[in-house]
């Protein structure tokens, strides 16, 4: 009993999660520990089944019937080893390159001349080639300034990055229902993970918990996922010192003690962060960035690095996740940051305290909100972002939609990304109140101004999407909302929107 | 030893649970200041079991099965170890620690639990379980505090840097044992007269208390679910001792309170309040701490002067707020909230108290309505209050007490927003005619429901 994971660790402060004892959903995607190569990359069974008669059998080299030496076979094996995969290089690309390498070697009769053990893996070769192209150090470190990421994103213009279907030519009621913005923003796990998840779906929870427990039992854990022959380190023997020089690394949840050969030391990690910042700015590929940040965080953890750099890694990851609306990942960073800030390691504690308050408004977790309020010091209250978040909270608590939307239009830092998550919900609440209080009607203009809409068209579309077009009436040149008829409809929509928010990874 | 052994035999012969529980209280009393040390000094590790067996069960009058005897000896043996740690700690021994006490006590708790599962300890001995559980919690908290003061952070094979889990490690461990006690009580199949089911509410309250302390209020839901699933086999709540009911109802009330489920919370807290012993001042104060904010939210009523007068702490908390709400003094209300914020947040009553502002606002607007006077009197009809009130009059009321600098000016849209909220929440009856700048209030004494006008 004492070795089991206590239930409150699994759910921590999510009182809404019913049944913590039985449905302890872990805050990460449970992944089956990979025991052999065959588990990996199901999309290419042919290549994998013949790891010893590797990919070559179908290529042009096959015609020459070359008998490959063990060194080459080991090399090919290494190419396919999961820990050597790089997210940005697809398996197909890698295979193509591998083929090229071996074919060239065979053509030039250098098959036995090459030191296969030292030869760079094809995925590394590809990456190096790309990096050469990309190496263009004209980018400043955007993330340190606390500004939104994309260019021209400052203040209200950030809206432009979102999926807003405002084709000006068609009337609002013609347009499709407004899509769930949140849905748009969630990053789903990479396809590889997804397929694994699907495979695991049936056995999830219990079996996985069991597996996990075993993994954490420590010293006896098998150390079988590496092709290298470094001595097996003991678990919990102090920090690992990494010696991996690669900048990029795929995230893989550790199943045993970390291998120093795949862990990057601090100096490399610092370069990694710079590279990631550049890549994010340039490519904006969130799936890739998120994965890279997770492995970065992991390398920091296993080496017990806990300093200003750690804080900035978490902050940047949190901001990126926020921008993409990946609240699960954001919340993980936020939880970590709270602990890091408590150790006075620098960073931007007030900025994130403000986000935290806004986040709990969104999730409507009042127990956690109370904790967040308890964390705010008198000094913090002088900070504009914290002050703003506190005002938002109290405006909502008192139903003061007027002040709420004034605050919404003037949100510091990246708080607006969080507020976007719940403005529509609050608009419905406000409309429910307005329709009850104003008789017989109000102008659309009034609603647009009170509820922070950008145009009367947007307001009209919102009203139609959530109630019905019959509530709008044109009278002496102005469009009016017939409040007398509308109350019940918005009441219903409001209740719908205020259902409890459940977010993956919330702890 | 002779004292403790005699107490045990005595309690056992009389079948007195409370007397048995005092045997296992690891505190020296004023009557016998050396009860622990004499127990510890009476034997040594080598002869422990033999000595215990003979002094506990040899002699006439005590008929206990062999299995039960062995189980009690085991409990006493673990108790002896724990007492040793307690004494070491009290003497300031260099190897003594709160953690060691906790570990020893935990062993004892486990031995006791084993006695219930394997050796059939009778249900009348349950008070032992309460006492052992209670001290398990106390010792765990002390051990956690000790660990916090020595603070060393450990890393495991984790993905993230800071796992904020070490803080309550001992108490979490203890909670697991208490949870076992919970199961032992709930699932006892013995006939109800001699069932451990009678301990369920007491142990549940202990576990609630523990979960609150480790910030895992969510886990209390699991206990309630388990109890509900068994409810058809449990005796009705009223037949339990009052002390069990009061504590249980109090926690249920607080759990609902934290979920913002104030109606339910009020029901349970009121029960606890009614049944609470008059002299249990501390408990009554605790209940009121949550019952008063509940009442404010659900019924919009304030605590009376007499009620507050008997609880100085509550008086301090709620008097200034109540006065401001009554007078409709918004500026004063905000100041009182700000002044009490830290304490309110700590006790988790800030959010509901904040809602009192609506009542203060209602009272202020009500004054505007009354000050508005009456319509032109009509022949032979009773006077009718003026029911069309310009929004600017409400705006003027809002400026009372504020420094009328440009910054604190309130714009008309915001005043309308406040009005529309009161109407929406049913605190005011009427409607806003925006174009004409009027609020039209209900006639026939219904403009401010429940306040007489």
Q: Which percent band covers the strand fraction of chain A?
A: under 5%
Q: pLDDT below 50 for ≥5 consecutive residues: which ranges of chain A?
A: 10-26, 34-64, 136-185, 189-204, 218-235
Tell me the radius of gyration of chain A.
27 Å
Structural class designation of chain B: mainly alpha
Percent helix of chain A: 40-55%
Mean pLDDT of chain B: 88
Summed up, the domain count of chain B is: 3
Number of separate helices of chain B: 20
The quaternary structure here is heterodimer
**CATH fold descriptor of one domain in chain A:** Serine Threonine Protein Phosphatase 5, Tetratricopeptide repeat
Largest sheet of chain A: 3 strands, antiparallel
Secondary structure layout:
The complex is a heterodimer of chains A (507) and B (453).
Chain A: H1 7-11, H2 45-49, H3 70-80, H4 91-107, H5 122-134, H6 181-185, H7 191-200, H8 204-216, H9 266-283, H10 286-302, H11 308-323, H12 327-342, H13 349-363, H14 366-375, H15 384-397, H16 401-408, H17 415-437, E1 442-443, H18 444-450, H19 456-466, E2 472-475, E3 478-481, H20 483-497
Antiparallel strand pairs in A: 1-3, 2-3
Helix pairs in contact in A: 4-5, 9-10, 10-11, 11-12, 12-13, 13-14, 13-15, 13-17, 15-16, 17-20, 18-19
Chain B: H1 2-14, H2 17-23, H3 35-41, H4 48-57, H5 66-90, H6 98-118, H7 126-150, H8 169-186, H9 200-213, H10 220-230, H11 242-258, H12 262-275, H13 281-299, H14 305-309, H15 312-327, H16 330-346, H17 350-354, H18 356-371, E1 388-390, H19 391-398, H20 412-424, E2 430-433, E3 438-441
Antiparallel strand pairs in B: 1-3, 2-3
Helix pairs in contact in B: 1-2, 1-4, 2-7, 3-5, 4-5, 5-6, 6-7, 6-8, 7-8, 7-9, 8-9, 9-11, 11-12, 12-13, 15-16, 15-18
Biased composition (Basic and acidic residues) (chain A): 180-197
Organism (chain A): Penicillium frequentans
Biased composition (Polar residues) (chain A): 43-59, 223-232
